[in-house]
Amino acid sequence: MDYTKLIKEVGRGKNHACDLDREQSLALYREMLAGEVPDLQLGGLLIALRIKGESEEEMLGFYQAMEEQVMQLQAPADRPMPIVIPTYNGARKQANLTPLLAMLLSKLGFPVLVHGVDEDPTRITSAEIFRQLGVEAAQSQQQAQQQLDAGQQPVFVPVSLLCPPMDKQLALRWQMGVRNSAHTLAKLITPFGKQDVLRLSSVSHPEYIQKVSSFFRQVEGRALLSQGTEGEVYANPQRCPAIYLLANGEQQVLADKQEFTDVDLPDSKDVATTVAFTNACLRGERAIPQALINQIICCLVGAGVSPDMAEARMIIEQVF
Questions:
Q1: If you compute the radius of gyration of the chain from its CA atoms, what whole number of angstroms results?
Q2: 183 and 95: one domain?
């Protein structure tokens, strides 16, 4: 490909840059993931795309190229629809409750697959918390499938195993100083291909809800979408966002925005404190934040286990 010409197209600044079409985007990202783009041009393209912002057609092309590189798994038979949870941000200011959400969903009988980074020098990752909870990262496709079929706890698959080329793209952040397209794309990964699956997805700002909703319609995906907590998908325990179900090309609100006071939360974001809080919630010794309960109720509806929120709430009350 003529990378210089492509940089001229996308690199003219936020107001004058042109978008690539889907075929161009697919071809370009295939070469990016294959490591065929020279470092100088790769850096120029990534920075230009970050400044311009990826168009819908570009994201769809990039996503298709990424899908071709993702490890594939089979949903367990005679079990509810799998739930896929991305975790790429971790804890910056408050405790990371993504592992707690995953453990609670697993307790309800869902096959739960969590994917994300192994480590982040600036934040507390879910991988660190999972290790202390006794959930070891899968080391191979076969092991991930075995863990998924066993169904005893969530399965954590590091992105380095799930999609090695994306792991390399994500790691460029530490050389370039800023995130790139991979940080958005990685959160959309599903290893189940076209199989029925419920993805948990989040946005950083409410105005992106419609953009992400449009993406899931285009790829015919099913997802629960909400505003994230420091980039993680779990519902903010004090300011639970509105939660949307995206399915069958339609968008509906399952839960309205809600604020909570006097919430029992960890008093620190460190691993030991978060693990102790998670275990206490699982044992029923501390109250599960209502925002997470609301999110789990939405998962029951989104995955088709319950026909409506009222019945899902009754199930949750019996279990938790």
A1: 19
A2: yes
